[in-house]
Write a structure and sequence with these properties.
Elements (H helix, E strand, L loop, with lengths): L12 E3 L5 E3 L3 E4 L4 H6 L11 E4 L4 E2 L3 E2 L8 E2 L2 E7 L15 E8 L2 E2 H9 L5 H4 L5 E2 L4 E2 H4 L6 E6 L2 E7 L7 H11 L7 E3 L14 E6 L3 E7 L1
Parallel strand pairs: 3-15, 5-11, 6-17
Antiparallel strand pairs: 1-2, 3-4, 7-10, 8-9, 8-15, 9-12, 13-14, 13-16, 16-17
């Protein structure tokens, strides 16, 4: 490693259910990947080309605590399936895409909805509403060797015991192999890349003190307290 003029930042990693952690290189997030969520956000649910935005690797936070962020009064929860890649490349064929997956996890795409809404109106990027500190609470990643490639299963999120979001992985408009293949046409995917695969309907605001309980059947569960 070359000499650096400041101390080199550590590679961010997230826990797995086995030995060792998963190092994160990039985080790609697909937007409006469940038809019902597209409708609730005011968009046509028809299958259009997918679009992605990015979070930062250190936004992924396994601590179980979500600090309510500054400069917002409307922060929403979004439960998502996390896809962790062990390899990558460009122009990955659809029938080879799943070969690049190391494992899956449960995560939350926390969103400063008011700031995202302002950005949308002005035609600006979403990062101010999406890529803030600790904006992606995450559970441990489970390897494919344990759970295979889940393509169906209940997706649910409760807040203080009340069901807010519910759907099924089979309701994703763009499936995991399609997301990987599509992304690889525009980016060179690599080991350590993570894909957050969209959320079902029912997104809503949280307040300090709320407890969010997220679960994806066959993948895992995650409990996060808003502080």
């Amino acid at each position: 490693m070359p000499n650096t003029v400041i101390p080199a930042p550590e590679v961010h990693s997230i826990p797995t259910t086995g030995e060792g952690a998963f190092p994160v290189r990039r985080v790609y997030c697909i937007g409006r990947n469940y038809a019902a969520h597209a409708v609730e956000m005011g968009h046509d649910p028809d299958r259009e080309p997918p679009f992605f935005f990015q979070k930062n690797p250190d936004n992924l936070d396994p601590s179980g605590a979500f600090p309510y962020p500054p400069n917002s009064s409307d922060v929403h929860h979004e439960i998502e399936l996390l896809v962790a890649l062990k390899s990558g490349g460009t122009n990955i064929p659809l029938d080879k895409a799943l070969e690049h997956v190391w494992g899956y996890g449960v995560c939350l795409d926390m969103t400063r909805r008011d700031l995202q809404g302002q950005a949308k109106k002005m035609g600006r990027p979403w990062e101010i509403g999406k890529a803030f500190e600790r904006s992606a609470p995450v559970g441990p990643v489970r390897p494919v060797s344990e759970i295979g490639h889940p393509d169906h299963g209940r997706v649910a999120l409760k807040v203080n015991g009340d069901l807010r979001q519910e759907g099924d992985l089979n309701q994703m408009i763009w499936k995991v192999p399609e997301m990987i293949s599509y992304l690889s046409e525009y980016f060179e995917l690599a080991p350590g890349d993570v894909i957050m695969s969209g959320t079902p309907a029912g997104v809503a605001a949280v307040e300090r003190g709320d407890v969010m309980e997220a679960e994806i059947e066959g993948v895992g569960a995650l409990s996060v307290t808003v502080i």
